[in-house]
Amino acid sequence: STPFPESESLFDICFDASSCKWTSWMETVPEFKVPSDVDASSITVPTVDSVRIAATVRTLLLCKRAALVCGPTGTGKTVTVKAELNALEASKWTTQFFTFSARTLASQVQDIIEAKLDKRRKFVLGPPHGIRCIFLVDDLNMP
């Protein structure tokens, strides 16, 4: 067994199963190099927070568990989660993204969800057979 480093926080490190040791989150991703052929506004620089969120969301989704990502405004939560959802295999996953606002009504949310799902039986809805459905709700605290 590999002991947990006493000087570190679990938020700063993760366990690397391939090397059987605790490592920094940033060591789990390749070194970032700014691409010269893309628009600056489309570049996403990985940070400790974004790498940690991406790994956690990816693990939860692949284990068929729900994820709730919370944190301060402007930390890249939505961009990070969207990137993880876009990386999923399209033949096995379907995603729907919507943003809550102060004007969002419960009936609107219900309509959006029902439009993306198939009716299986009376009062039973679900994604097409063999496909997992993910709903990403941004600004969950708004209504």
Please give the alpha-carbon distance between the first and last residues: 47 Å
Structural class: alpha+beta
Low-confidence stretches: none
Main pleated-sheet profile:
2 strands, antiparallel
Return the string of H and E elements.
Answer: EEHHEHEEE
Strand composition percent: 15-25%
Summarize the amount of helix as a percent range: 25-40%
Q: What's the alpha carbon Rg, rounded to whole Å?
A: 19 Å
Subunit organisation of the chains:
single chain
Shape: globular
Strand arrangement, major sheet: 1-2
Output the number of helix runs.
Answer: 3
Average predicted local confidence, pLDDT = 89
Number of strands: 6
Summarize the structure.
The chain has three helices and six strands. The chain is an alpha+beta fold and 143 residues long. The chain has a two-stranded antiparallel ribbon with strand order 1-2.
Describe this structure in words.
With 143 residues, the protein is α+β, with helices and mostly antiparallel strands. 25% of the residues lie in helices and 20% in strands. The chain is built from 3 helices and 6 strands. The protein has helices at 48-62, 77-86, 106-116, and strands spanning 13-16, 21-24, 93-99, 118-121, 124-126, 132-138. The strands form 3 sheets. The protein has a two-stranded antiparallel ribbon with strand order 1-2. The protein has a two-stranded parallel ribbon with strand order 3-6. A two-stranded antiparallel sheet has the order 4-5. β4 (118-121) and β5 (124-126) form a beta hairpin. The longest helix has 15 residues, at 48-62. The chain is globular, with a radius of gyration of 19 Å. The mean pLDDT is 89.
